[in-house]
Description:
Number of helices: 13
Largest sheet: 5 strands, antiparallel
Structural class: alpha+beta
Amino acid sequence: MENVLRPLIVIGGSVVLTLLIGWATDLLLRKADQRHRETPLWGLLRRGRIPYQLVLCAAMLRGSYDQAKLLEDHKVGIGQALTLILVGATAWLVIRIAAAVVESTYTRYARAHHDAARVRRVRTQVTLIMRVVSAVVGVVAVAAMLLTFPAMRAAGASLLASAGILGIVAGVAAQSTLSNMFAGLQIAFGDMVRIGDTVVVDGEWGTVEEITLTFLTVRTWDERRITMPVSYFTSKPFENWSRGTPQMTGIVYWHLDHSAPLEPMRERLRDILRECPAWDGRDYGLAVTDSTPNTIQVRALVTAKDADDIWTVRVTVREQMIRWLTEHHPHALPRVNTADAALPTELRQANGNLRDGESPRRAHEPPRTGRG
């Protein structure tokens, strides 16, 4: 009877105590979260209740399993397994606690500061810091697990003796990986690019969606994802439209006939912008920037508060201006001239009176003689 009750009391008691302590801790965190609504720390700490209970249960079983006298032949193996679970659960709990502290700090910072660029910079730094912390905790946890095996402890001296050579070999082999990791830290703390920035890389326009220690993901306007190593942003030039202030100036071009009505176009541009919610009202303008034998190049300048709005303003102005020209000034659109130009009155008088049915002489033609 004792052989049945002892393991039941030890194992069942550990599980019950774990559930009770976990429930009490969760209740305290819930009350603290309701009492302190200004910070999300206590609510975020509740996410760690599963690893917290695993740590409690593994620690209790590891300390009291000798008293259970269950499976004596496998006592060492079970103890080793409980130790590994304890180390892994502890690392998991540490990562959850660190994530809760960092995220709550970022949330309070975002609420206190209204500068979107600064908030995005802190968000990028916080994300990379959490990835570094998770990697470090994971490596330490794996090392601690390996050191629980006697064979690994015995090999420790030889491993330390060859650590210098192995470090050199690993550094050469992982040169690109290490360069990407350092580039990721440089991006995070050098404020080169941030999560949420609008960038143009290799001719692709998009928004930075994710930054890790080794790669960066850009979401393009057509919902594609471009993944590239972070070392790209430290070794090659790229456009960051969100750098500094997000306000932007956009350009719209038209190729029109030389008879295009410029003053009415300026008035129409003003009316289009006044009806466009994406225009920020800072500035606008319209001017002729180039000419060819057949057309002139008309450029409109418009402004908006960010990259998304400047795109909306540009396409709106381009579409509505072409529609207005088509409806009210179709002669202003490009066309191919095939008819002879009518000569001014002075040239007509210089050439003499034209006979009926006779076409006017071009300026470069020699005068006709009496012999036709």
